[in-house]
Structures are given as C-alpha cells and as structure tokens.
Amino acid sequence: MSARRPGGAAGRGSGNASGEEAGGGEGRARVEFSFDGRVLSAPPGSTVAAALCANGVQAWRRTRGRGEPRGLFCGIGACFDCLVEHNGRPAVRACVTLLHDGDRVATSSSTGRPSRA
Predict the structure, then answer these.
(1) Could you give the CA distance from residue 79 to residue 94 in angstroms, rounded to a whole number?
(2) Segment 50-87, tens digit of pLDDT
(3) Does 82 fall in a domain?
(4) How many domains does the chain have?
(5) Which is it for strands 104-107 and 83-86: parallel, antiparallel or unpaired?
(6) For residue 115, is it within any domain?
(7) How many other C-beta atoms can be found within 10 angstroms of the C-beta atom of residue 64?
(8) Host domain of residue 94
(9) What's the CATH number where 48 sits?
(10) Residue-by-residue DSSP string for the chain
C-alpha cells in the first residue's frame, strides 16, 4: 500500500513529472534571466509574468494613448496588458510564456497588439 501524503490521496501528491514537489523552491536551481538589462532569477517552470512579479516588477508596458503602466491583468492570455519583448521578439504575452535560463525580457514598446511573427 502507498504511503499517504499530507493533503492528498494515497500515492498522489503535488509532485511534477520529475518527481519534485511543487512550491518552496529552496535548495533547487533557479532560472536566471534579464529584464531591461538587470539580472533576475525565478523558480523553474515560471511564466515570464510570474517571474517579473516575484521580483517586484509590477508594470512592463505603457498604454499607447496616455502612457499608463500595464502589467499582469487576466493571467490567462485573453488580454494583451502583459506584453513584453522576449528574446528580441516584440509583443509576447508574458502570462503564457514560459521562462527559460538566459532569456532576455524587456519593457515592451508595443501598441498593445500581439506579434504576428
């Protein structure tokens, strides 16, 4: 019989495909990336938006009309408030883009429309 895990049924838990438990992040490698030239880090598996928020960055785009700051809004890819420049590609939705080691993220100069590339 399988051992019971706290908060879960026997044999099931919050582990991922590699067998690691979700959350925490202590003792695990972190993903390093740059944002506007500043080196930051985040837990592996983070989206660009989650990594930016975890590092205290709340806005990474300005509206085209009044120049108001924008960042994470819907978090599911339905809107275009979270656009960033990602590895040189403009107008990428940060909330649905996974972050990888060495990625270059920059404040978007986009007009709020997605990239057609």
Answers:
(1) 11
(2) 999 999 999 999 988 899 999 999 999 999 999 999 99
(3) yes
(4) 1
(5) antiparallel
(6) no
(7) 12
(8) 31-107
(9) 3.10.20.440
(10) -PPPPTTS-TT--SB-TTSPBSS--TTS--EEEEETTEEEEE-TT-BHHHHHHHTT----EE-TTT--EE--SSSSSSSSTTEEEETTEEEEEGGG-B--TT-EEEEB---S-----
